[in-house]
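Holo prediction. Input below; ligand is zinc ion.
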Amino acid sequence: MPKACSFPTTLVIFGISVQDVLQDSTPDVARDKDALDLFCGAAAIHRAAVDSGLASTAFDKFRVPGITDSGKAGLTEDLSSKSGFMRALELVKRLRRGGLLVMGPPCSSFVVLNAKKCQRNAQNNYQGDLKYPVVQLGNLLATAAAFLMAVACMRGVEVVFENPPSSTIWKFPIVKQVLDSCVQRSTCTPRCAWSREPWGKRMLKRFKFACTGTWISDIRRKCRCPGRRHLRLTCRVWRNGKFRFTGTGLALKKSAAYPDALGKAIVNAWRKSTTSCPIACSAHASSPAWLEICPGARNSLTYKRPAGTKKMRKPLPASDSLPAWLQPSPACTSASSSQPDWLQPKAIVARKLTSSTTGSASGAPSWLNPAPSSCS
Ligand SMILES: [Zn+2]
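Structure of the complex:
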């Protein structure tokens, strides 16, 4: 008998839990999308999917300046606002079974360049300095990404999650829990291996992709730059009596964008895998979405490891092992009162979800507002 996945269905963001979404009583949306390129940046995944004749959507706060970053309900693609998050959630729900969700949440608060101010370490469970706005935003977007990833996996969608290999987002509790529950394979590839720029002008930047399918191995490449010469993204500067690393803004931004060849390779690898993908079969079609087996559960359920391949990691314990700060509590406690309100549970769980504009209408995202006084 299939058993339930260890996904954190109690994860709450903007007053909505994963379970709320999966048990939503309103009729399911049409699952008419093949791919969603979330935090799309230069949208290489989206373009590759469209070029292949697929129904794809690109989503990013900075995609259309003046529109998607405006905060207007129905237009915003800012995942730090409730209306932007709800729009992304609707798009995730529209992905067909076996469809593709690719996301690379911003890494700026999780990497070494700003590590001193962000203060992410094992002692604070990589949550960082919660008073620092950059950390607050990083935590919110990482939590939003984990939420959407969990919903997608539970609905039989293939998910690819990307960040630099050294990013501490891989250790951020809720992201780690979702990844540990559903990821079959992780692989790294350097940007320079996919670039068409002249030798020596290519950026070395490494991408790490964690995926619900083993097909992501197809994009593994090695750096073959002559003399291992690359365009430098960071330099050492003498400041306040110490050497410090600093980035050159434009180059760093450009380095985050996937080269077109990498976008095509990811889409092609996924498409090649779909013909034999167990989650695309009709066996689970009659089950309610929230009871279906996630791709990661194949490890312990029906999936059999081919001979000669590496053993997969075991699924983590059930969701009740979530850190206390992520557990939705019916009553506000002293432990939760110090959290931003986007992580505060709702008093009443609504089963019908709407894309309310709460949180962004005032211009300031709700997670920046002080916690309600009733929680103090
Ligand atoms: Zn190289």
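Residues 277-305, 313-338, 345-351, 355-376 have pLDDT under 50 and may be disordered. That is the main takeaway for now.
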